[in-house]
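Q: Given only this backbone (481 positions), what sequence would you predict?
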């Protein structure tokens, strides 16, 4: 018998035992109740209020003790700094006494338990300001400090110990709170627009189907007083050009994007990634750091060419919907059990392991622009209806077995999707392209019938996840239409 199969069997037994423990203590988790839309509206004029703040967020003792670098391999410690990491916040309201705040961070991801802690620490802020929604976007930076836990020193085979640094996590949260308050205090009246542009050379898809969303989306706030504009940007490519051997801190291409925009025009920039499963930045240079710089510059130049801006009416709808994500990956289950990553677990009938993660998605509509915030890394074909046909799919099955694509659920080809938002729950792989290694499912990569390598399934919760996400969004859309 293969050693991998024995290992997976042992992990599966541990995960099932955990599921039974939770079941005995708490019973099966009920399906989260539908949450009702929060609506903010300005019926007096066409103005929004927006504010922005940003802070460099780096440990002062970065060279005095070990910090684990996020992304690629476990157990890598930081050796130096190429450019700093930041936290930013964007406040938006309709002048009706309420508002929403979006936080952006140059980090790989933040798990739901820490997201809840951040929101709890902002309770006074929300009461004082009327803030009705707090969302946290992670750039999924692979050259930053581990904020998720995946990349600590290995403790059991390939299973890492918790790589998070408590003091850095506290600093991160402190700066998020400070940015939220400053963003609120600096708000100004103005108008808001949505536009986009194709940037085909800025993406490289390394897994079939060879499709990728090459659209750079921009929500643009223009203050009435002519002061600094604020741009909320979205693009679907991994910030991972530095590679697996890198030990230097960098904000990767999102940092260079902000810098390049500001070199041309002083601008507040909040960035978040889109659907990024197997989507890398463009192959713009053989030098990793130069590739990141050129990617940021290319996207910045493209942002200035957007000429299809549509004025947004000052009406905001927000739905934050919890849902249960079935867990059938015993490796990820173990990481949750031993608290390498802080997930809230529940007993589930929908999972072969009897486990689910309690997570969420957030739907936002600003004027006519629909926005969806997902907690994982979605395949672009799942979002934008570009599934493999039976002839080229990994399984030989057609797209009819797949979940309804998210843009079809929202009835919007211009849906803006942010990944790594408000949690980190792994990859979302379409059903007809989802295959596992025969001997080490979820532990080793697989090769499909066409010779294509399948890594992403090893970091996916379950082949059911796309259907759960699609159905959850369908429930939201039924309530907001």
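A: Predicted residues:
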């Amino acid at each position: 018998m293969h050693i991998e199969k024995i290992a997976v069997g042992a992990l599966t037994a541990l995960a099932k035992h955990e599921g039974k423990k939770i079941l005995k203590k708490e019973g099966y988790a009920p399906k989260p109740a539908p949450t009702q839309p929060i609506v903010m509206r300005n019926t007096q004029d066409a103005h929004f209020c927006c504010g922005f703040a940003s802070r460099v967020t780096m440990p002062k003792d970065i060279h005095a003790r070990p910090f684990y670098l996020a992304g690629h391999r476990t157990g890598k410690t930081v050796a130096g700094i190429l450019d700093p990491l930041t936290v930013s916040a964007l406040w938006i309201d309709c002048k009706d006494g309420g508002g929403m705040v979006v936080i952006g961070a140059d980090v790989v991801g933040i798990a739901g338990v820490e997201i809840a802690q951040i929101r709890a620490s902002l309770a006074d802020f929300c009461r004082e300001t009327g803030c009705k929604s707090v969302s946290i976007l992670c750039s999924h930076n692979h050259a930053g400090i581990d904020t998720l836990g995946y990349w600590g020193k290995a403790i059991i085979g390939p299973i890492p110990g918790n790589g998070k640094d408590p003091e850095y996590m506290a600093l991160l949260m402190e700066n998020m709170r400070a940015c939220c308050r400053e963003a609120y205090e600096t708000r100004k009246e103005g108008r808001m627009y949505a536009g986009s542009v194709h940037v085909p050379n800025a993406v490289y898809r390394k897994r079939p189907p060879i499709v990728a969303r090459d659209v750079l989306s921009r929500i643009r706030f223009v203050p009435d007083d002519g002061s600094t504009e604020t741009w909320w940007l979205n693009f679907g490519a991994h910030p991972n050009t530095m590679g697996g051997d890198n030990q230097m801190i960098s904000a990767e291409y999102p940092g260079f994007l902000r810098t390049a925009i500001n070199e041309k025009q002083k601008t507040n920039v909040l960035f978040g990634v889109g659907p990024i499963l197997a989507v890398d930045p463009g192959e713009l240079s053989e030098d990793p750091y130069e590739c990141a710089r050129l990617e940021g510059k290319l996207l910045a130049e493209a942002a200035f060419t957007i000429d299809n801006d549509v004025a947004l009416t000052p009406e905001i709808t927000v739905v934050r919907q919890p849902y249960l994500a079935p867990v059938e990956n015993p490796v990820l289950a173990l990481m949750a059990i031993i608290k390498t990553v802080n997930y809230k677990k529940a007993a589930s009938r929908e999972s072969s392991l009897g486990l689910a993660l309690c997570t969420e998605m957030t739907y936002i509509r600003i004027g006519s622009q629909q926005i969806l915030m997902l907690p994982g890394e979605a395949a672009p074909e799942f979002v934008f209806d570009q599934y493999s046909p039976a002839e080229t799919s990994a399984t030989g099955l057609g797209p009819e077995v797949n979940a309804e694509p998210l843009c079809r659920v929202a009835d919007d080809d211009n849906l803006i999707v942010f990944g790594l938002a408000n949690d980190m729950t792994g990859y979302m792989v379409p059903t007809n392209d989802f295959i596992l290694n025969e001997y080490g499912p979820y532990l080793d990569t697989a090769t499909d019938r066409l010779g294509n390598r399948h890594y992403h399934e090893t970091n996916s919760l379950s082949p059911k996840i796309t259907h759960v996400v699609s159905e959850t969004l369908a429930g939201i859309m039924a309530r907001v239409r």
